[in-house]
């Protein structure tokens, strides 16, 4: 694959199209420098999974020529060429257009398959030249329509600004498509969360919005995602057989379990493969039956579950139980036939008085051809009822073999998944973040519902400071398992690092509600509250965390909570220091170091507070004592010399302080704060 060498332009184009963020482009440029330009920006972004290789190729090789030509084509053609929509999605959009009377792009956005910014970008840059005459445009349109047009054409002769219309009428478009009451006003986040469950399925979307409207409490800003997840989990997934969707979901279930045209075990085994591995489209009859049932759809030449609601209701456990029930069903019927208790109607009517062999030799029944190695049927001694009993046993054996295959396959995959998870965790603990992410990605290709892997993958992304990707990974974990408490905590940490502390607090509150005995969630919440200058709220949260730690200490001993105590007490000291409660701050820091004697942040906080309290000699002694610790990293040594320099500058003038700043800069030459402090102290 080759890409344009004008990488800054490509990165800018992808960013303007809403396909990547500025941070992702910057990270790609850094990686490019590290590889001595051996990889292009497009290759890096594709390798990282930010865009597909086909999308990178489209914008690198074809975009500039398309913009220059401004050729008249349906918008769907361009989006398909850019690998932003596939053929199956396009056909769904065309079908929805007929019912909703919306434009192609409007349906794609409402379905959640395109961002408004992406559609606007295509419409803005690929409008037909105004010099085109209406007749010429009509001819172009006629040609495209004869080629099974993929959507509405881009016509610059229209007076209205279509791009602006998409933004202004976006919610109205969604309401119209999904028949949502126009009197109800929902935020864009609410729409995004609902569509993340339904993938644009009209009935499911309408049902979830109905649940939202009927809920006893309205959606709360910053918490609507968690509230929607709770409604879907409790009102649909956990109780689907007793709600308004029961008829719809029972139809799908019946098509899998009671199918008269296909073997239910075969359908279940195929569906089980789709849940656990990549299944390419081969247009087999069984694949087509699953597609017709609506439980799966085609996506980029692969079969995937149609939406997260179906995936959660008809999950892997349901498949295994259903396969087991199918095997038991055949076993029971086989026993009944042998005992003469039940009269079965054969699958085929046999002509009385004719030998079984002649019937089996016909092109209508080929039983012995398929099972010769399993059982031999005698044409001269087997009666019709005996044959039917044997046939039932064969079906049972085949079903059990299929179930055993599924079981062994599942066992093998579970072993592989567990091993990959352990390897990823080990790499994460070693701070080998890229390698850990690769290992988690391999795991998730096998089992995309492994929410613990999504969570730990988020923490690995945090190690790379890719906080938006961290948030998305941990959010996926909470969608799969709404009670995944550490995934909520992970989301909170991501939001905090993205400086979205209100959202961070909402996520931490969710974790706290799920587990009131883990102090770390309160500690993290305290940090976000402090970032919002809610110092009293921050102190209250820390004190709650300390109370929990004291309870654990009383029952399990200080060794169980020493590290967490040091963190919590240091946070408390920081809050007191910000409020100029210096005596309380020093006491908190000293208590922190009583639990963890070499806890660096507590010693730094104590030294800074002593200096602020004009207890200069004590502050100087604190920092010098810290420098005697052989376990300090270079960065920690540089920070200690920096704070010692500031303390000495405050008390003794510039000679000793400048020397301290020089030591800091020698350890960390790019320590700009130390350089600036040295200048100020030298004045």
Mind explaining what this structure looks like?
The protein has helices at residues 7-16, 22-34, 41-47, 53-61, 63-69, 75-81, 87-100, 104-110, 116-125, 134-146, 162-168, 170-178, 188-198, 202-214, 224-237, 246-257, 264-276, 285-293, 308-313, 316-339, 356-361, 367-371, 384-429, 433-446, 451-463, 467-480, 485-497, 501-514, 519-531, 535-556, 562-578, 582-595, 600-612, 616-627, 634-652, 655-667, 672-682, and strands at 279-280, 296-299, 302-305. Strands 1-3-2 form a three-stranded antiparallel beta sheet. It is mainly alpha-helical and 683 residues long. Strand 2 and strand 3 form a beta hairpin. The protein is built from 37 helices and three strands. Helices cover 69% and strands 1% of the residues. Helix 23 runs parallel beside helix 25 (451-463). The longest helix is centred in the middle third of the chain and has 46 residues, at 384-429. Among the domains are: 7-178, no CATH class; 188-244, no CATH class; 247-314, no CATH class; 325-414, no CATH class. Residues 1-8, 129-169 and 332-382 have low confidence and may be disordered.
Which key phrases capture this entry?
3-stranded antiparallel beta sheet, 3 strands, globular, disordered N terminus
Helix-strand blueprint:
Layout lengths: L6 H10 L5 H13 L6 H7 L5 H9 L1 H7 L5 H7 L5 H14 L3 H7 L5 H10 L8 H13 L15 H7 L1 H9 L9 H11 L3 H13 L9 H14 L8 H12 L6 H13 L2 E2 L4 H9 L2 E4 L2 E4 L2 H6 L2 H24 L16 H6 L5 H5 L12 H46 L3 H14 L4 H13 L3 H14 L4 H13 L3 H14 L4 H13 L3 H22 L5 H17 L3 H14 L4 H13 L3 H12 L6 H19 L2 H13 L4 H11 L1
Antiparallel strand pairs: 1-3, 2-3
């Amino acid at each position: 694959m080759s890409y344009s060498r004008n990488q800054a332009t490509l990165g800018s184009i992808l960013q303007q199209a809403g396909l990547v963020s500025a941070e992702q482009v910057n990270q790609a440029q850094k990686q490019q420098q590290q590889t001595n330009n051996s990889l292009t920006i497009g290759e890096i972004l594709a390798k990282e999974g930010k865009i597909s290789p086909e999308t990178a190729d489209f914008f690198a090789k074809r975009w500039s020529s398309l913009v220059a030509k401004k050729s008249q084509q349906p918008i769907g053609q361009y989006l398909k060429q850019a690998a932003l929509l596939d053929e199956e999605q396009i056909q769904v959009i065309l079908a929805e257009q007929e019912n909703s009377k919306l434009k192609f792009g409007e349906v794609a956005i409402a379905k959640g398959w395109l961002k408004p910014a992406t559609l606007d970008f295509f419409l803005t840059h690929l409008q037909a030249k105004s010099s085109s005459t209406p007749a010429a445009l009509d001819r172009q349109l006629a040609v495209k329509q004869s080629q099974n047009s993929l959507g509405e054409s881009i016509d610059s002769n229209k007076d209205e600004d279509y791009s602006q219309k998409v933004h202004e009428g976006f919610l109205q478009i969604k309401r119209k498509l999904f028949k949502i009451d126009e009197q109800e006003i929902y935020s864009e986040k609410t729409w995004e969360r609902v569509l993340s469950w339904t993938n644009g399925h009209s009935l499911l979307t309408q049902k979830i919005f109905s649940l939202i409207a009927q809920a006893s409490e309205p959606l709360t800003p910053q918490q609507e995602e968690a509230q929607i997840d709770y409604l879907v989990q409790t009102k649909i997934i956990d109780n689907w057989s007793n709600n308004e969707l029961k008829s719809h979901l029972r139809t799908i279930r019946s098509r899998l379990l009671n199918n008269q045209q296909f073997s239910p075990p075969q359908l279940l085994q195929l569906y089980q493969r789709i849940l656990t591995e990549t299944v390419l489209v081969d247009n087999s009859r069984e694949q087509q039956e699953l597609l017709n049932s609506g439980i799966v759809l085609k996506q980029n030449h692969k079969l995937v579950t149609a939406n997260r609601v179906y995936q959660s209701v008809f999950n892997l456990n349901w498949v295994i139980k259903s396969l087991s029930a199918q095997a038991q069903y055949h076993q029971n019927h086989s026993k009944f036939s042998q005992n003469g208790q039940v009269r079965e109607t054969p699958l085929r009517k046999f002509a009385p008085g004719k030998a079984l062999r002649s019937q089996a030799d016909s092109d209508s029944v080929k039983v012995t051809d398929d099972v010769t190695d399993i059982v031999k049927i005698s044409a001269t001694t087997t009666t019709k009822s005996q044959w039917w009993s044997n046939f039932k046993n064969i079906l049972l054996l085949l079903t059990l073999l299929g179930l055993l295959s599924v079981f062994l396959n599942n066992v093998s995959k579970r072993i592989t998944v567990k091993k990959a998870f352990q390897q990823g965790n080990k790499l994460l603990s070693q701070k080998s973040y890229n390698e850990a992410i690769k290992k988690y990605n391999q795991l998730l290709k096998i089992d995309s519902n492994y929410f613990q892997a999504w969570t730990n993958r988020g923490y690995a992304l945090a190690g790379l400071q890719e906080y938006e990707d961290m948030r998305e990974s941990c959010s996926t974990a909470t969608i799969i398992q709404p009670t995944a408490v550490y995934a909520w905590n992970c989301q909170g940490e991501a939001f905090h690092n993205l400086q979205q502390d209100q959202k961070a607090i909402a996520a931490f509150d969710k974790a706290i509600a799920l587990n009131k005995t883990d102090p770390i969630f309160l500690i993290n919440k305290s940090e976000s509250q402090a970032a919002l200058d809610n110092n009293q709220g921050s102190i209250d949260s820390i004190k709650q965390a300390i109370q929990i730690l004291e309870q654990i200490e009383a029952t399990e001993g200080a060794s169980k909570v020493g590290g967490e105590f040091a963190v919590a007490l240091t946070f408390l000291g920081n809050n007191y220091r910000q409020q100029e409660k210096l005596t309380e701050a020093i006491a908190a820091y000293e208590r922190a170091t009583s639990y963890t004697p070499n806890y660096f942040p507590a010693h730094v906080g104590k030294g800074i507070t002593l200096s602020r309290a004009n207890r200069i000699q004590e502050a100087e002694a604190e920092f010098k004592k810290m420098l005697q610790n052989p376990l300090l990293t270079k960065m920690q040594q540089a920070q200690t010399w920096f704070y010692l320099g500031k303390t000495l500058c405050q008390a003794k003038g510039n000679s000793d302080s400048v020397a301290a700043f020089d030591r800091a800069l020698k350890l960390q030459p790019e320590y700009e704060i130390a350089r600036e402090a040295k200048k100020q102290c030298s004045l």
